[in-house]
Design a protein that fits this description.
about 425 residues; alpha+beta; six-stranded antiparallel β-sheet; 6 helices; 19 strands
Length: about 425
């Protein structure tokens, strides 16, 4: 169903004045050059140039420009005759930004600020980043188990999963213990757990107790608790239960029944995937590094599936059960990449980023309740190191779908937030 059926225009509760057509700059830095938010920039998000050279040549250039400049009357005649730069909508003025950066997905307000979305039962204030006191801890709102955020595998590799409907799930990737980061080492990617509920999933007819995991460049997916090394099964279950206070509450049955079914976009849809402008923006203020917390991390992604060529390896226990149910051989992951969208438990607040508690495929259903004041909220998008911004991006709260006979219905157990632009 097209998103227009949901009337996803600006939220009437938003008090800040619209300014997208007048100013698309991110922060309150006094830069009024047209199109500043869309122009090419260096990797720091700032314009490049040799300041010393410009300072040295400025006087001479100014003198030459004054001599060559036409008289005021001639300038006025030239301005009247010059054609105006056409908007994408056909009216006069400067070109509008791409659709994903305006309208119901994104807007620019007149005054920069460090805006945070409202916190309540759907966006819990208890979702906060963990403090870091050791090399096996990570400063994110992850699932900390016995003072540990970093985990490893009880084997050379383990499979991870995505839910297709209800409890049914499928193998979507494989992670290798040798690829995982250890302590202060800069090699490999971290394997951490997210504060999801524990789910008993059915994969190839095998029941597997799983929790949401995050693995460096391979993003988020479900993993078998018994395949993890670093904490006992009981400790992980207990930590997940304590983390319930961080997860969003459900809506009323009426809100779910009346929710509008939308679909996650194709991974190559330009509205639902990152572009050049997204690569320069972050969802938390004061971002220091160029890695992590980028806008594109929460849009549609094509994630690499890693293999270690020439080595079969030993599967972790639960992964070995999956192989046994699949003919006793390693699961064949046909493509080297997988397409995925994160469904997060929270919206960014101060420097606490959103964290995934579920994942979706392109084309999966997502049911968005109709009350815009409750279930659609704006976050700020920041340039790197900036702590204020004029840019607001809209996110939607809803439910992933499950099969009920021949139709899809909202799955109350699978709920969270996504950027509105990933839905169609």
């Amino acid at each position: 169903m097209p998103s227009d059926a949901l009337e996803l225009g600006p939220d009437p509760s938003r008090a800040e004045a619209e300014g997208a057509a007048a100013d698309d700059d991110d922060d309150d830095d006094g830069d009024n050059e047209p199109g500043v938010a869309l122009r090419a920039a260096d990797s720091d998000g700032n314009d490049t140039g040799d300041e010393a050279e410009r300072a040295a040549t400025a006087p001479a250039a100014a003198t030459a420009a004054a001599a060559a400049a036409p008289a005021p009357a001639a300038r006025a005649r030239a301005a009247a005759a010059a054609p105006r730069r056409a908007r994408s909508g056909g009216s006069g003025g400067r070109a509008q930004p791409a659709p994903q950066h305006r309208g119901k997905y994104e807007r620019t307000v007149k005054k920069a600020s460090g805006h945070d979305a409202k916190q309540d039962r759907y966006n819990r204030p208890s979702a906060r980043s963990n403090r870091v006191k050791s090399a096996i801890q990570i400063g994110r709102p992850g699932l900390r188990v016995g003072n540990r955020d970093e985990f490893h595998l009880k084997g050379d590799y383990a499979y991870r999963y995505m839910i297709t409907s209800g409890r049914k799930a499928e193998v979507v990737d494989k992670i290798w213990d040798a690829d995982l980061q250890r302590g202060n080492s800069k090699q490999g990617g971290r394997l951490a757990l997210n504060p999801s509920a524990v789910r008993k999933l059915m994969i190839s007819g095998v029941e597997v107790e799983c929790i949401m995991s995050w693995s460096g460049g391979q993003s988020a997916a479900w993993i078998a608790i018994k395949d993890l090394r670093g904490a006992s099964v009981g400790a992980i279950r207990a930590a997940s239960k304590r983390a319930e206070k961080m997860r969003p509450k459900s809506t009323s049955q009426q809100d779910r029944d009346n929710a509008v079914e939308m679909k996650f976009r194709a991974i190559d849809d330009p509205i639902g995937s990152a572009d050049l402008l997204d690569e320069k923006r972050y969802i938390v203020p004061g971002q220091k590094s160029k890695g992590g917390n980028a806008v594109g991390d929460y849009l549609g992604k094509s994630v690499m599936r890693r293999e270690r060529e020439g080595r079969a390896g030993r599967a972790a226990g639960e992964s070995k059960r999956i192989e046994a149910a699949s003919g006793g051989k390693p699961v064949d992951l046909e493509n080297r990449k997988r397409a995925t969208f994160n469904v997060t438990m929270n919206l960014p607040h101060d420097r606490t980023p959103p964290v995934a508690i579920d994942v979706a495929h392109p084309g999966d259903s997502f049911f968005v309740p109709k009350d815009k004041k409750k279930f659609r909220r704006e976050i700020s998008l920041y340039r790197r190191t900036k702590t204020s911004s004029k840019v607001r991006q809209t996110w939607a709260f809803g439910f992933l779908g499950r099969d009920e006979g021949a139709r899809k219905v909202a799955d109350e157990k699978r709920r969270g937030w996504v950027p509105l632009r990933v839905l169609a």
